[in-house]
Amino acid sequence: MIHDLDPRIHGALDGELDRAALTPDERALVERLDAAARALSGTPVVPGLSRRVMGIIRRPLASPVARFRRWLTSPQPVTLSLRPVYSLVIVALAVVLWRGPVPAPMLGAHEGVAQFVARFPEAHSVAVVGAFNDWRPEATPLADDDHDGVWDARVILPAGQHEYMFVVDGERWVSDPLAGRYVDDGFGRQNAVLVVRPVRSE
Amino acid sequence: MTAGGGPSDAEAIAQVLAGDVEAFGVLITRYENGLLRFATRMLGSRDAAADAVAEGLVRAYRHLATCRDPARFRTWVYRIVANRCKSHLARRPIGDVSLDDVPPVAAPEDAGEGLERSEQLERLERALARLAPEKREAFVLKHLDGMSYEEMSVVTGARIPTLKMRVHRAREALLAALKESP
């Protein structure tokens, strides 16, 4: 509990009032505070501080450009003080402006998702081609994000039967060895066949 | 010349500005103890205080030419170190000072008068550390460094009535802490 001290005590401590004018009780409080200040006035010992400072100032100062570069590349503390009302406004704006996660593409009633998976450990690129992308190798690339040689892609296709092939490294056309069905492409090779079922049935 | 026989602050500053870097050592020797005591009480840590004082002294050296009144070097350098302490406090996650890493400070011989070093001193240190930084700063400058309110005003940039109020509140808090003693 903190009580207001008599202004006479502060006056005496500030040297504005002769201590002889204080009552014995007042003088005792003044002496108590004097003793407290003396007790707190010990000096910590830090050996080598003078040497440390002199060592720094004897070194030539880095050029302004070097100091600016160091300032640019070293972490700087940033303190942001904000009135609570402003933080509420910012949160409200963020809620209004945030449109949520990008919605996944909506599937039509007669569409489904086809997943193409193939293992080509030595390949630099793999794509899937079929009538659905006009047999263009650049249209539907497969990805191998973890570099384990397994390539895959998910594509929305109309429900039904689709013929396809893989194109490895942009030039080698390969039939999917894991496909369940194949049809002759008329040029001596086998196209793999995939059946896509509609996700939503009417 | 000073009473101690060394060059006055103004003379030492003139020597430094004339190119004698070593003359700055006179000013360091003269003020490092007071600055360290001030910074330790402000920051509650001897290591942090040593950093703040070292940074402040280097900054004072670099900007010595801007010290408008060399005879008042003391308040000027205290102001620089006080600002370094404020920067250190601002970087801390909590605003107050922890005394966990305060080493035992060597108390003067006659401090035992009316006060036992140990529990009571610890109580005082904790009460001082619990004060708001501006009240702690005012009390330390007034009672530990023996500055006048005019000098404190130069160091802190605060008005004299404000400083008096801070010192008064700090005294009352410390007395209250002493009254809590068993």
Short description:
Among the domains of chain A are: 7-38, no CATH class; 111-196, Immunoglobulin-like. Chain A is 29% helix and 23% strand. Chain A has helices at 7-13, 24-40, 49-58, 64-73, 84-97; strands spanning 111-119, 126-130, 150-158, 160-168, 172-174, 181-184, 190-196.
Biggest interface between chains: A-B, 35 and 55 residues
**Structural classification of chain B:** mainly alpha
The CATH architecture of the domain at 111-196 in chain A comes to Sandwich
DSSP helical segment count of chain B: 8
How many distinct folded domains of chain B?
2
Shape of chain B: elongated
| CATH homologous superfamily grouping of the domain at 111-196 in chain A | Immunoglobulins
Strand content bin of chain B = under 5%
Average predicted confidence as pLDDT of chain A: 83
* Strand residues, percent of chain A: 15-25%
Structural class of chain A: alpha+beta
Would you identify the CATH architecture of the largest domain in chain B? Orthogonal Bundle
Give me the count of strands of chain B: 0
Helix content of chain B: 55-70%
**Overall spatial form of chain A:** elongated
